[in-house]
Q: What sequence folds into this?
């Protein structure tokens, strides 16, 4: 489990920046500025975590338990809440209602794991979903050009193997991009520019945490 410090943000879209040598770097802009809604401690809950919230929601659209808890702690109801398990040292740095600023957690050039929900594509066939080549367009092929072909066997084992690539729901799944580089941080706007693309549509909720596959990538700033 990734327990490195992290933040929540919303995807703004893609842009590009220019390096000193003129190289163009495509980047995804993520609007940060989440707030601490609640805290979990090992003494009380058995583990350490921060519950972060982002955006605003009308109080009438939230359940009574969420509305009362949020309004009592931070005077508003966030649109989205996510719990991030992390170290006790990082949890102790923040109080309920405090804004988690991106420059206090990350630094330029750091590698992070970015998680979001991909764009839903609906029910799709094997050609679009998995890149199947399809069948011949000639020699009597009729209504089978974009089919997947045979899916099972005869007597042994006499069933379809689990995990067989077949038509079905495409997209609308949680996707994690590991070891993505932070190209630039804009502290005044609380915007993070991530090198490359990020899953999801505009305004999608993005979770960023220190990369687990990079040594010392998840260490918080001193």
A:
């Amino acid at each position: 489990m990734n327990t490195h410090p992290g933040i929540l943000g919303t995807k703004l879209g893609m842009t590009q920046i220019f390096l000193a040598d003129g190289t163009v770097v495509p980047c995804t802009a993520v609007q940060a500025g989440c707030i601490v809604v609640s805290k979990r401690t090992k003494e009380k809950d058995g583990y350490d975590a921060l519950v972060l919230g982002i955006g605003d929601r009308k109080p009438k659209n939230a359940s009574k338990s969420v509305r009362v808890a949020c309004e009592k702690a931070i005077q508003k109801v966030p649109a989205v809440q996510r719990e991030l398990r992390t170290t006790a040292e990082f949890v102790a740095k923040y109080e309920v209602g405090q804004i988690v600023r991106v420059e206090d957690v990350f630094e330029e050039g750091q590698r992070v794991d970015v998680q979001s929900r991909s764009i839903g594509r609906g029910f799709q066939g094997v050609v679009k979903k998995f890149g199947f080549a399809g069948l011949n367009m000639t020699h009597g092929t009729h209504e089978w050009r974009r089919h997947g072909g045979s899916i099972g066997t005869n007597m042994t084992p006499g069933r379809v193997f689990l995990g067989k690539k077949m038509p079905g729901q495409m997209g609308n799944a949680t996707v994690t991009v590991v070891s993505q580089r932070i190209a630039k941080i804009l502290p005044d706007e609380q915007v993070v520019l991530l090198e490359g693309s990020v899953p999801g549509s505009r305004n999608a909720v993005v979770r960023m945490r220190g990369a687990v596959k990079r040594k010392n990538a998840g260490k918080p700033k001193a």
User: Anything to note?
Assistant: The CA atoms of residues 51 and 99 lie 12 Å apart.
